From TrEMBL:
It comes from the Bacteria. Gene3D superfamilies: 3.30.230.10. It comes from Thermophagus xiamenensis. This is Mevalonate kinase. GO terms for molecular function: kinase activity. Keywords: Kinase, Transferase.
Length: 304
């Protein structure tokens, strides 16, 4: 007997960094995600196979008490082991993985940062009937908006109101200019995150700043005018720039862009969102001339 569980990928359109301090974030689940298929082997070991769009990328075999017996990647096998131990403790059955073969399939390139970790956590939590937020807290940490997106049916507002459970509210994000919203892949590893985190520890954001970001998140979900949406994107970028002490993406790369550019998630990391006032062909030409060749329409990837 085998069964398959699936979780959505995610993007945080508004609220990065400050969602950890109580700001409301606007987040979207994606059409792409990760599946996890489990079946009994009749043996004692746990066999784990991880695949993505280019095939098998990781495998490991664990004993019934999760000792690594063989693997293609020792550090990753150790990390997975710790996740499984945490999941077993929450399930109150540490041997739950014995005699199982689990195959995961990531539906997007792992370097895109669309939620390879959060979809894994949510899939495990669904299978074991445990709280995904608790499992996230014991493993990767973070606000948990990505966990909320993993099972969401459409765009959401996300707010941390207590340590136990976040406030998750369904919303709509379908502006008339949706076809003008682009995603671009920065294709650069985030190497300033440590400094940003230290900066945030030393300088806590003001209550007024958190309220401003919450207001922007709500306004972005209902805005009908592309010009007003551009103003919201630029206001958000300016606020976060001041909070974390980093220049905006537009200041760094796109000062002559006709429209607005906004970081998504950790600044300098994976994707940015752009609202372009140029025709599609000109928009593609602009970003490709800057060296950003992976461009997607937001309307083509959002789950709604």
């Amino acid at each position: 007997m085998s069964y398959t569980i699936r979780s959505n990928g995610k993007l945080l359109l508004a609220g990065e960094y400050l969602v950890l301090f109580g700001a409301t974030g606007l987040a979207i689940p994606l059409q792409k995600g990760q599946t996890m298929t489990c079946h009994n082997t009749g043996g004692d070991d746990l066999i784990w196979k991880a695949t993505h769009i280019n095939g098998l990328w990781f495998s490991a075999r664990y004993s019934s008490n999760l000792v690594i017996k063989e693997t293609t990647d020792a550090p990753l096998a150790e990390k997975l082991k710790n996740i499984l131990i945490a999941a077993g403790k929450l399930n109150k059955n540490p041997s739950i993985f014995s005699g199982k073969e689990i195959t995961t399939h990531l539906e997007f390139p792992p370097i895109w940062g669309w939620g390879s970790s959060s979809t894994l956590i949510n899939n495990l939590a669904q299978w074991l009937n445990i709280d995904p937020y608790q499992l996230l807290s014991l493993t990767f940490g973070g606000s948990g908006y990505d966990i909320a997106c993993a099972s969401a049916r459409g765009p959401i507002f996300f707010q941390l109101q207590s340590k136990e459970k976040p406030l998750v509210q369904n919303t709509i994000f379908n502006p008339p200019f949706m076809g003008q919203l682009w995603l671009g892949f920065l294709n650069s590893k985030q190497n300033s995150q440590k400094a940003i985190n230290q900066h945030l520890k030393n300088t806590l954001p003001a209550k007024q700043t958190i309220e401003q970001i919450t207001h922007i998140s709500h306004q972005m979900s209902i805005e009908q005018s592309p010009e007003n949406f551009i103003a919201l994107m630029e206001e958000h970028e300016s606020i976060i720039s001041d909070v974390i002490g980093c220049p905006t993406l537009k200041q760094k790369y796109f000062s002559d862009f006709k429209g607005a550019v906004k970081s998504l998630g950790a600044w300098g990391g994976d994707f940015f969102m752009a609202l372009s006032l140029m025709p599609d062909d000109k928009t593609k030409e602009y970003f490709k001339a800057k060296g950003f060749n992976t461009l997607l329409k937001l309307q083509d990837i959002i789950k709604r």
